[in-house]
Amino acid sequence: MGLAVAAVSGLAAGDFERWNMWDRESYVFYETLKNGTHVTVRAARADDGPKIRRAFVNLEPQTMYTRFFGYKPEITDQELKRVTEADFLYDVALVATIGTGDEEVVIGGASYSAAHTQSPPSTAEIAFTVEEDCQNLGIAGVLLRHIIGIARQNKLTQLTAEILAANAPMLTVVRRCGLKAETRSTAGVVHVTLDLAG
């Protein structure tokens, strides 16, 4: 499969139906953020380990807490392997980057993970991280559209997420994604289920 590139801003989930895009080696899109910044959204690759580690250690404690519900001193080798070796069916990992080549910097990421007991998978849990200086520019919304598109291509029926009730920006992204969402709250955590048929 050749390189699949869409040089567009605000790609809608339905646009993914035109391509078979779940091959992680060919998954590359260019997007434009609210402030005009051009970013690349692509599948995480095997050689992204150092870039992802660098992005992780540069996260502010509050961003780390909203993502992991606690503080993590480092990303483990196992966690990194799950990102860089995602199979694009049960596990999908995307990065948002600026710059190219040696100057490329990871500024955000999104993933979904489905239980391998499902065959084929039908439900997956999603997660997002955006570097502090790049928050509120629409990166999470862009990444969610891509995750939705890939999930639909892979015939998933639901996406789930656990979001801190205090994380209003992420809750807003979910509400505005265009899918029917069911929510319930427990001990400060909002459990979200997104219906991919919606």
Word description of this protein:
The chain has 198 residues and is of the alpha+beta class. The protein has a single domain (4-154), classed as Gcn5-related N-acetyltransferase (GNAT) (Aminopeptidase, 3-Layer(aba) Sandwich). Helix content is 24%, strand content 31%. The protein has 5 helices and 9 strands. Strands 1-2-3-4-5-6-7-9-8 form a 9-stranded mixed sheet, with helices on both faces. A hairpin with a 6-residue loop joins strand 4 and strand 5. The protein is globular, with a radius of gyration of 16 Å.
In short:
By secondary structure, the protein is an alpha+beta fold. It has helices at residues 49-57, 61-68, 77-84, 139-153, 168-175; strands at 4-7, 27-32, 38-43, 91-98, 105-113, 123-130, 158-164, 180-186, 189-195.
